[in-house]
Amino acid sequence: MLKNLVLTLVIILGSAPLSAYSDSKLKVGAILALSGDFSAFGKSCQNSIELAKEELAPEMQERMEIIIEDDGLNSRRAVDAFHKLASMNQIAAVITFTSGPSNAIAPLAESMRLPMLAIGASDPNVVKGKKFVNSLWVSTAIEAKAVYDEAKRRGYKRIARIGGTQEGVLALKKDFDALNKGDFDIVLDEDAPADMKDFRSYAAKLRNQSDLDAIFAILMPGQSGIFTKQVRQQKVTQPFFNVETFEDPNDVKLSEGAMVGAWYVQADAPTDEFLKKFQERFPDSSLWGVGACYDAIYLIAESIKKKIPLDRYLRSVKDFKGAQGTFSSMGNGYYSLPVVIKVVTETGFEKQ
Known about the structure:
InterPro entries: BCAA_transport (IPR051010), Leu-bd (IPR028081), Peripla_BP_I (IPR028082). The chain is an alpha/beta fold. The protein contains 12 helices and 14 strands.
């Protein structure tokens, strides 16, 4: 989901001859949201990329150079950064973050016949109709179905919804609404721009809703904690649910307990082995997208090791064993990544 909301790990690598993979140093550009409200997630991806690079075999470390640019989760800045990396740094691969930047860069990558791997970009338009663009993330269609089924299982009928205006959020809402054949009555539905921090008027409207079952809060990092706190201050007690962005320790801290018990849909958690070493190295880092960012580096490394052009490798890889577990290409730009239901607890985030 989090289209815009997403660090869209976009990886671009041309269909170069095999000799390009054997001797020359490979430059990888990473365009991440290292400033602004989404910076906690961008920095977590940067941390994961750093960890992956350090754990590569020494000879592969020598073969790969990673150049990082900040787009502040702004599509125009992401495109500028891409042009800079492609022309000045002559990168062979690029990593970006989220749906907005990914949608902006995808047509450029496709026209250059450069493979792109988007991370944190659940908007299906990122890969739709493209041969060189891939998404190492769960699509909004799959996320919406998981949210829909879980909300139905919990017996919700009347739902209030507030969501951002980013491409990923809009795609998620569209997919959810397409599934709704009368199971849910969305009684209050409002947009929340990414810079919105005062939700008291919406919270007051929630308080006046009768027979409300739950609150679908599709908000950006830096918003969820403030929103849930302000809603609870209005004595509104209905449960919160969301996709992806509740898994942010900083928002949980901001909520002062209001987010505890909230549930959300997320790509299945990274393996216990990976989480242990990541948290030991970066104890205060968000965990959002860290498995995908780590795996992106290793996918590139494997294509070099196997001397297979990245565009072909990304569309054909099978049983890849990475931080997110074992997965394969589905041949359409997506990968066999499962989703899970998780709950915010007082001590962290637990899988249902």
